[in-house]
UniProtKB/TrEMBL annotation:
Residues 531-637 form the Histidine kinase/HSP90-like ATPase domain. PANTHER family: NITRATE/NITRITE SENSOR PROTEIN NARX-RELATED (PTHR24421), SIGNAL TRANSDUCTION HISTIDINE-PROTEIN KINASE_PHOSPHATASE UHPB (PTHR24421:SF58). The keyword Kinase applies. Gene3D superfamilies: 1.20.5.1930, Histidine kinase-like ATPase, C-terminal domain. The lineage of its organism: Bacteria, Pseudomonadati, Pseudomonadota, Alphaproteobacteria, Hyphomicrobiales. GO terms for biological process: phosphorelay signal transduction system. This is Histidine kinase. One of its GO terms (molecular function) is kinase activity. Signal peptide: none annotated. Keywords: Kinase, Membrane, Transferase, Transmembrane, Transmembrane helix, Two-component regulatory system.
Length: 645
């Protein structure tokens, strides 16, 4: 029960949190709506009312009646018999020096202006001037020869090809210097500014397309790039001007706003991290219907379908986008959500303003601003997304800098650890070397000294003691020589051993034949250690000693050569040292050892043990007369003598 009581206040608390975020956001959007409406009123261009011509006689559908501009026509399609507005203006000959013009702030879809029966302006010559979404103004100079002192006639033929009714704003006739500033202001607001936005939009479309190609796992960039491309096409595609035959593709591309708005909704869903619902594809259905039917049937069907399906789809998309951004603001509370939400509110307000004009609820003007605000929103979204991407790159750079610092710190710690490990390895190597020296001195020199002491205490003759002392001295020299740095060249150690062996054999009148069959002798071994050397030298000493003491040899040959491996893992050179004598030889058991348990057998076993400690292979052979000890050295000596333990 206590747990249920604890969970009960969670929902009210969550509701209060949502309300605390939602209410301020909605108040902010209300302020933005008010600011947008005021902005539309304040930014309304001021035309020179002193030169306005508002009273006209309209002839339409075979009937004439007086009208006052601005005026909506009754017909939606009037190419064959266009409405004809006829009015008058007064000209004074004293104003001829300044030059007079006729100025049309707004009309739909095309207009032809004549002064005193002579055409001075035809907007059909400029295809972009007939676009209702640009509010394009027109101005034309009136030749001085056409103007008469006093009353002059002006006629305006309004060509309408639907699906909206025709509209003609107030006509202004007067000095060009008085009309030109108003014309340039409208051109800046409704033509140049939209082209600038569209150019910026095209640049962002290219950037976003590249970002999507480089980051395919983030489709949000591709969706927004596609929406911007459609917006750019609508901005720069020349519209068809009836009755001329045109391609059907431009007509359907100009009516692609429903697809563009659906893509914006898809962008919003993906941008804020939500999954696109399955039924979301229905949002693209109206735009696809307009596209397919327009390609099949051709104009004017795309314009009619756009009015019936396209405009409601755009409004629905804007409403859905407003809901998406509102949910994102409540959940995320970040700058991107607020920015996009405010942009959507502005566009939705402008769209409602345009709908009021389409349905003639607002009868004094027809200025469409939703396309301009829509382009500005796309540019704002693209700029915000690019800013977000740039911020992510900065975060990546910052992280990379932190990572470099951490790697540097880790490298310093690793170097210190390596230094400690090297010191420990050096200490361990020194300890192992001391142990080896003590073992060698104990096994060799220690035993010899014990023998000398024992012989002295028993009172043996001096010759015996002398031989023992010489053996001890020989062993001491062997240990000392093994400590020399020979740089991995075993031939240097063998040279020292040759001198000692020659001196050992001289009193016995035994000749030592030294043979090096290969120019390089033995291969270099950088991994060669002193304990390797001493084991090899002791093997050679044992072989020579056996030949002197047990084989009664008169001649000993030492052969040194380098052989090459030829199969499998035996690639690479290896050294071979052979000691051959001409003595009486010895018998071998089945296992390759010397037969019996004599001192010779023990010596041969010691030789095999020493060879194994070095990673070498010892081969013994005896054929009745003479014996051969063949020591095959390894290609790489082992790092330690653990194999011998």
């Amino acid at each position: 029960m206590s747990e249920i009581a604890a969970k009960a206040p969670v929902k009210p608390a969550r509701r209060r949190l949502l309300a605390s975020r939602l209410v301020p956001y909605l108040l902010l959007q209300a302020l933005i709506v008010i600011a947008t409406i005021l902005g539309l009123r304040l930014l309304q261009p001021s035309d020179p009312d002193d030169h306005a011509v508002t009273a006209f006689s309209l002839r339409e559908d075979g009937m004439a009646r007086p009208v006052t501009l601005p005026h909506f026509t009754a017909s939606r399609y009037s190419l064959a018999d266009p409405p004809l507005y006829t009015g008058t203006f007064t000209f004074r000959s004293g104003d001829a020096a300044s030059g007079w013009s006729v100025y049309l702030p707004r009309f739909s879809n095309a207009a032809e202006v004549a002064v005193n029966g002579v055409v001075v302006l035809d907007s059909r010559r400029d295809a972009n001037a007939n676009r209702p979404d640009r509010n394009t103004p027109q101005i034309a100079l009136i030749p001085a020869s056409l103007l008469r002192d006093g009353s002059n006639e002006i006629t305006v033929r309004l060509f309408v090809w639907g699906p909206l009714k025709g509209f003609l704003d107030t006509v202004y006739v007067g000095p060009d210097a008085a009309l030109r500033p108003a014309y340039e202001t409208r051109t800046l607001l409704f033509v140049t500014l939209q082209v600038v936005f569209s150019a910026w939009q095209s640049i962002l479309a290219v950037i976003l397309a590249i970002m999507w190609l480089m980051r395919r796992r983030e489709p949000v960039y591709g969706v927004l790039a596609a929406a911007m491309v459609l917006g750019v096409i609508q901005a720069f595609m020349p519209p068809p001007v009836p009755p001329f035959t045109v391609s059907r593709l431009p007509a359907v591309l100009l009516a692609s706003a429903p697809i563009e708005s659906a893509l914006i909704v898809a962008f919003g869903v993906l941008f804020f991290g939500w999954r696109w619902p399955r039924y979301g594809i229905l949002l693209f259905a109206p735009g696809l219907i307009i596209f397919v039917v327009g390609l099949i049937a051709g104009p004017p069907l795309p314009r009619i379908l756009f009015l019936v399906l396209g405009i409601p789809t755009v409004g629905l998309s804007l409403f859905l986008m407003a809901c998406v951004t509102t949910a994102a603001v409540i959940r995320r509370q970040d700058a991107a959500s607020f920015t996009i939400g405010c942009a959507v509110t502005i566009v939705l307000t402008c769209w409602i303003h345009d709908m009021l004009s389409v349905f003639e609820i607002v009868t004094n003007e027809r200025i469409f601003v939703s396309r301009l605000s829509y382009s500005a929103m796309l540019v704002a979204i693209g700029a915000g997304l690019t800013w977000r991407f740039a911020r992510a790159l900065n975060q990546v750079d910052s992280f990379a800098g932190q990572l470099v610092t951490r790697v540097r710190e880790a490298e310093e710690r690793l170097k210190a650890s390596f230094a400690r490990e090297e010191e420990r390895a050096r200490a361990a190597a020194l300890a192992n070397e001391r142990t080896r020296l003590m073992r060698d001195l104990h096994d060799g020199l220690g035993g010899q000294l014990v023998s000398i002491v024992a012989l002295s205490e028993r009172g043996h003759e001096g010759a015996t003691i002398t031989d023992a002392a010489r053996a001890a001295l020989k062993d001491l020299r062997l240990v000392i020589d093994s400590m020399d740095d020979i740089g991995g060249d075993l031939m240097l150690a063998l040279g020292s051993w040759r001198e000692r062996a020659t001196a050992q054999l001289r009193p016995h009148d035994i000749a030592l034949d030294w043979r090096v069959t290969t120019p390089q002798g033995l291969p270099l071994h950088p991994e060669l250690r002193p304990w390797h050397v001493i084991q090899i030298v002791r093997i050679l000493d044992e072989a020579v000693t056996n030949a002197v003491k047990h084989a009664q040899a008169r001649h000993i040959a030492v052969t040194i050569e380098t052989l090459e491996g030829s199969q499998g893992n035996d690639q690479g050179p290896y050294g071979v040292i052979s000691v051959t004598d001409d003595g009486c030889g010895f018998a071998l058991a089945g296992n390759g050892e010397a037969a019996g348990a004599s001192q010779t057998a023990r010596g041969l076993r010691n030789m095999r043990s020493r060879a194994a400690r070095c990673g070498a292979v010892l081969d013994l052979s005896s054929e009745g007369s003479g014996a051969r000890v063949r020591l095959q050295l390894p290609r790489i000596f082992p790092d330690s003598d653990a194999a011998a333990r």
